[in-house]
# Entry
Amino acid sequence: MRAYLRWWHDRSIRFKLNCIFLLIILISILTLSFWGIRTYSSYSENQADQSTLQMIHQVESNVDYYIEHLKDVQHYISQDPEVEKFMQMKGQEPSKDEVARIDKTLTMYTERNKEIMGIMLVNKSGAFTSHDMFRITRDSLVEESWFQDALKAPNDTMIISNPIGRNVSTSQNYSSYDVLSLVHAVVDPQTEEVLGVVLMDLRMDMIKSIFENVKLGKSGFMYILDHKGNIVYAPTNDIVYRIQSKWLPDGSQGSLTQQIKGHDYRILFNDSATNKWRFIGVIPNDDYQRVITDIQLYTLIVTFITIVLASLLSAYFTGTLIRPIRKLMSLMSHVKNGELNQRFVSETKDEIGQLGNSFNHMLEEINNLINVVYAEQKKKREAELQVLQAQIKPHFLYNTLDTIQWMAQEYEADDIIEVIGALTNLFRIGLNRGNEWIPVRDEVKHAESYMIIQMSRYMDKLDFKFDIPEHLYSYQVLKLILQPLIENAIYHGIKARTGKGKISICAELESDLICFRITDDGAGIPPEKLEEINQILRGEKMREDQYGIGLFNVNERIQLTYGTAYGIQIYSALGKGTTVEIKHPMVQAVKKTG
# Structure
């Protein structure tokens, strides 16, 4: 045994690595092959369940988003002035002009939302109007179950699948299985009285397309049940109608295996909290077993191929490991003799490459060590000089401006006094002792000082107005966010128009943020350029050299400090003017104590 160990220790590193590689590969692959085949069945089933549930969640999210979008459309319709006027009519029919205006509104929504097949408005008096739906019999629509259910739950939007038995029809040829109906009550915001109901029929095509793009295994499928257990959507498959509701236990999510027509099926379901629908996925167990069988076969093939390739490639790879080590040993011998200009060149980033890089770095550090102290001392002296200059320059500048202002007072040059005072405020607030945040009061004063200076140049060309509520003055904002945008309004808006222009600067509280708006009646921005600028502001596109940096600098500072939910948005109409909107969080001033 000792003789064998001695023989082993005396072998080269390359020989040892070859033996070790082959031994590790053989043990690992054989262990993984036999153990993996036995354990993969249960694991793959769990993974398949998780994957299927994730797909169900994704489909659920897409459907919920689709329905919520249409709920919003229905809400917008109910808020339309013509619709509100129609809903408030009591015992009278709308005039032809009113019907035409309502029809125009409804047509606009159906043209913009192709999934809408029809919209009907019914007020509490029984009057109704629609651009594409009509009443079948003379019975009042207020007696319909969908109308009465909407009255009972005015704050909810009801979703009716397969709307059968309604006293409503349409000029389009479709069955109740092709549509979903959304029903929403219209409520008077002052009296909270229900004025009527908006009925909207939706195509099932969008939901069908969502489900058609989802594949569960090789022959699985998905379908939807509403809260009453009725099928909202299901593909053409006779298995759907053999699945009994009692098989599916209560709960928001679950899975089970059930035998149908002599075959086992894996059934997974998830309940939507938004629409109270149940999304169900069905996969034949044969799909699971087919995958496991394929994996077993592939594992055996890969095991055999890997063992063969390992024997052929281990010699090559061990050689690639040994060569750079020998090269590094040679370089170290040269360094030991004082040759510090040696460098290790590696084409890899593995441990040997990192060792070589460390070797190079060590040599560079030795070569640079003498110069480090000198460079650091020089930088230190430069930094001290810069700090001293930074302290002297603002003080000297303020004293100089005060001297000029005093001399202007001696000559009673009021216009010069005003400009010098504005310039002093501009510098004082802009520097702000190095602080990044200032009160809204100072930011507004800084902008007003800038406008005073500009008015001295563009008195006949420019007028301005500030409308900032005083209760906003105490909030803190990033400094210098208004002046660059006002400058843009002057040079890109007012100067490009004919005649005298006006710039308005206002602010207001919106939820948890302060919204500043800089509005000019200048030349405006072409739609293509406006969209490109807004894309850059949202981070969807890189800024090109043709655009300045002031606007984007302000936006980037706000977003880097508070996040992408805040920043700048631009609205403009060519030839009419531009509005730049700044969204900044409400930040209270921090009182210093002690």
In short: The chain is about 50% helix and 20% strand. The mean pLDDT is 80.
